[in-house]
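I have been asked to look over a protein record a colleague put together. This is what I was given:
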Amino acid sequence: VQLQASGGGLVQAGDSLRLSCAASGFIFSMYGMGWFRQAPGKQRELVARITSSGSTNYADSAKGRFTISRDNAKNTVYLQMNSLKPEDTAVYYCRGQRLWLEYWGQGTLVTVSS
């Protein structure tokens, strides 16, 4: 099983980034997928998730700015992040989950300068 996150980088406040997470080794379409983030000195928190059927939900901090989507044909989940703020700075992780099974990617760093 592998979850390869990419797309992070250094951007300015107000910019956009799209994160991608390519999955392999499990039946992607059957798994709920999520993006989490962990800022320095803070606990990992949910940013957004999408079910196997495509339903989504977002953390309050992400609503209206971030969009999670999935492409089952490409085994990839995306996080489109717009209007980025310095407080969005964190390592972003993708997670696949189904029943008691849970898989995590290695994370991609997003740094937003003011």
